[in-house]
Amino acid sequence: MDKQKLIRKFDKQSAMYEENTRKRMWGAWRRQLLQNVEGDVLEIAVGAGANFPYYNMERMRLTAVDFSPMMLQRARKIAAELRVQAEFIESDIETLEFPRHAFDCIVSTLSLCGYDDPVQVLRKLGQWCKPGGRLYLLEHGLGKNPALKSAQRLLNPVARRMSGCHWNRNIEQLVLDAGLQIERMERHWGGMIHLIWARASVMI
Ligand SMILES: C[S@@+](CC[C@H](N)C(=O)[O-])C[C@H]1O[C@@H](n2cnc3c(N)ncnc32)[C@H](O)[C@@H]1O
After folding, report:
1. Whose CA is nearest to atom 1 of ligand 1?
2. Residue 203's pLDDT is what?
3. Residues of the chain with pLDDT under 70
């Protein structure tokens, strides 16, 4: 899908994402995933700041990226309310570059569904992380049950058109294909929701 069209699609959903942030949607999973995030931290596809309530700002410096101006506007508002200090960058993650080994931790929640080439994005995350740095992922993808997977694959074109999200991604395989080491993984809701604690390879 054309990038400008995709950005407009996410712009339009930004009010809903702000509401979800205020409702602390999926808060238990976010809290569990993000409790040890520290140091120089990059959050990609930050949306309306859904993870901000779970960060301990005393032990981190945050850089937050999204390509949707409306999402960033709402993320800035939530950050001000929660006293979260961050550098916000409006950019497409797929074309953005950071120096190698720039971050201690990288956070991605509900973002791998949106990219044209999620493996290439994950490879870049591995390079942006310091050697042995940590990646924290909360992503939706294909479930475990064959019938559920078939339904997700069937509905994928509709989901992409309506929300900009792919429903047919094998999240674990994408992470492995990018050369990242999975240290721990939990799956919920029939296996669709993935919580992944991964490490960048020390070889990158
Ligand atoms: C499903 S929302 C998730 C938002 C937030 N991370 C959360 O957990 O609620 C996906 C976000 O990814 C952003 N996004 C999608 N593709 C992107 C890209 N190529 N570059 C930057 N941001 C992107 C969208 O603008 C949107 O804010």
Report:
1. 110
2. 60
3. 202-204
* Angle 104-81-43 from CA coordinates, rounded to 5°: 25
Say if 83 falls within a structural domain.
yes
Tokens of 108: 């991605």
Sheet holding 181-188, edge to edge: 86-90, 60-66, 39-44, 103-109, 129-140, 193-199, 181-188
Ligand 1 center–CA 111 separation, angstroms: 5
CA nearest ligand 1 atom 4, residue = 47
Indicate if ligand 1 lies below 6 Å from the C-beta of 93. Answer: yes
Give the distance (Å) from ligand 1 centre to CA of residue 101. Answer: 23
Helix residue spans in 45-145 (DSSP H) = 69-82, 118-128
Task: Give the Å distance between the CA of 108 and the centre of ligand 1.
Answer: 9
Mean pLDDT (the chain, rounded): 95
The whole-number pLDDT of residue 162 equals: 87
pLDDT in tens, 98-148: 999 999 999 999 999 989 999 999 999 999 999 989 999 999 999 999 999
Which CATH number goes with the domain that contains 30? 3.40.50.150
Query: In ligand 1, which atom is closest to the CA atom of 25?
Result: 9
Does residue 99 fall inside a structural domain? yes
| Residue 204 domain-assigned (yes or no) | no
Cα(114) to centroid of ligand 1, in Å? Answer: 7
pLDDT of residue 139: 97
* Containing structural domain, residue 165: 3-199
